[in-house]
Amino acid sequence: MTQFKYANHEKEKELYGYDRVTKSHCRMCHGGCGVLVYTRKGKVEKISGDPDCPINHGTICSKAMGSIQLAYHPDRLTYPVKRIGPKASGKWERISWDEALDTIAEKIIDYKDEFGPESIVMGYGTGRENEAVIYRFANLLGSPNVLTAGHFCYGPRIATSIITCGTNPIVDYENAPKCIMVWGNNIVISNPDEYKGEHFSVALNKGAKLIAVDPRMTRIAARADIWLQLRPGTDAALALGMLHVIIEEKLYDMEFVEAHVYGWEPFVERVREYPLDKVAEITWVPKEKIIQAARLFATTKPAAIQWGVAIEQQVNCADNDRLLMALMGITGNIDVRGGQVLHQPPRIRNVGYFGAHRMLSDAQREKRLGGDRFPLGGEFAIINPKCVWDAIIDEKPYPVKMLFFISSNPLLTRGNAKEVYRALLKVPFMAVSDFFLTPTAELADVVLPAATWLEMDYIGDYWKRHGYILPRRKVIQVGECRSDHAMLNDLARRVGQGEHWWDDFEQALDWILEPAGLTWRDFKKMDYLRGETVPQKYEIKGFSTPSRKLELYSTVLERMGQDPLPRFREPPESPANTPELAKTYPYILITGRRQPGFFHSENRQLPWMRELHEDPVVEIHPDTALKTGIKENEWVVIESPRGKIRQRAKFFRGMDPRVVSAEHAWWFPENRDPGHGWAESNVNILTDNRYESCDPAMGATHVRTLLCRIYPENDDHRNPGGIP
């Protein structure tokens, strides 16, 4: 059955001088939080958490409160513009929506006719829950190329979990796990994907044991019963070491393994290739701690793993995910209450169905960029970004002539930013939909003003795997801003897709909800809709995999010609893998530390968020600072074989002296030059995107760990951060 809960309209009686209070659903990050939006004279004046929302129970973060500054920011783009003059000139002219969409439609039709639909690449980044409409547009156009963050963010979790156990295993915080292992994730800062830090904190307050796997002493690691401080990029080896302990000591769930695991014997043989002495040497984690953590996790029931993007932005991406699912599975913690639940969605038309993936022809699917090189990514319609840059710069395997980026800033968020810049300069036509003229948007030909979450009706958390959907209700209208959904619904009719779209996008919401017997107007009166939660479904119907079992030996990867068993690959740059390079670049650089007020490259122009964190910060150990002559709070240069940037030094004893931790996605909106200082502190100037450095199955770019050197800025005379 589907669970219904109707909204409490009594809240509107408590306005305290406000004209209106609207229940909605924030999307300033990966979203999920229910909010109350207070307005006076049609303007938002206050945002607070909705205590009735099951996702966040009334808690919200600084980003949600900063939504007001985003919506009304004086630099916000509130009407369409077209570029006047050369790229990066910073000269724009206001145009109408009709002219903007007609221009984009004309380019799409011309390139499709001359070079084929595959020459047009759609793209999205952080996502504004717009992936379904973007894929629908691309698939109906006949383009197999949608460029997302999905090659190294969340997409691998979905792809690997589908081929391993049928769907993404979600921590069941509702039923009080007794042990939580947080792996490469900082949930109390980042509030990732299906999760909010509040649920995690409540579970700890109820007495759950905590294992933290992280190179840094985070707040979570400081609270942990066991902190496994591994060498960055060695997650797969550590997981194999823990599995070695669990298997050799027979701490696994034998009944579950015998009845529900596929490939047990070859998996055990692979695990035995990683004895603890070897794993300890690889990971820097003492074997006694590995044994202690493995025993705690395997013997405390129920137990769960809170995992995140840090383990996916690596050469071991797919195997990292698969190994953590192996730990969940063989300990009997998968699809059980308080462990890792395989939720069922509400009875609606899902994202995949809406995305019209089945309407892309086999012939066009075969043209997907990188599909032959990275087969698991290709199978899930995910492409590696370098494949697009190569198709623009070298026109191989065919030319890409047009990019259309929606809520994406790849110049800041993709590996090897210098190559990204060259590609964006060369592509004949680019359109962007965003809130501001970002460094990426400044290179476009047409830029469209996107609506924030406050300015649209939509089904929140439609794409997630926690079983909920929630209504996002439109509260305000700012300028001529339009939601990406409505924009693409309009554009689709201009390129001949009208029969597959709607006169008004509210009809699309009706269509999504139709199997539940609801319309959008019905759903707007509700707090949420939730699918039924049934644990241990595998006892009745098995897992949704080819073998109907949890596949430790992947039949899907075997069919693709990939290694069906997970393994550890040494990071492309490391003291062990490239010892000669390490003589010049002696430190391991971590590149993705999160900050509460930012969401990747977003919110640098919001005063409240910049007050929290004014400058880009690189953490170094005091011993490292002493060795390199660095003083705290001074600007320093971080250099890799690809280039160099500047960030402000902060001393931090909570990591190994051989490790340096920098922040990502920095640009400076206050810099009024067209590039907004995109290369000055952008950590992706330093990262690599070579194919051989990427995950072989998913195509994930290895951007999380690399080698660097670091020194005071006054020692450098070569202009760090200069635009290439």
Count of extended strands: 28
CATH class of the largest domain: Alpha Beta
Strand content: 15-25%
CATH topology of the largest domain: Rossmann fold
Describe the structure.
By secondary structure, this protein is of the alpha/beta class. The chain has 3 domains: 81-155 and 347-530, Rossmann fold; 169-341, Dimethylsulfoxide Reductase, domain 2; 579-715, Beta Barrel (Barwin-like endoglucanases). The strands form 7 sheets. The protein has a 7-stranded mixed β-sheet with strand order 6-5-18-17-16-7-8, with helices on one face. Strands 23-27-24-26-25-28 form a 6-stranded mixed beta barrel. Strands 1-21-20-19 form a 4-stranded antiparallel β-sheet, with no helix packed on it. Helix 3 (97-115) packs across helix 21. The protein is globular, with a radius of gyration of 25 Å. It starts with a strand and ends in a 12-residue tail after the last strand.
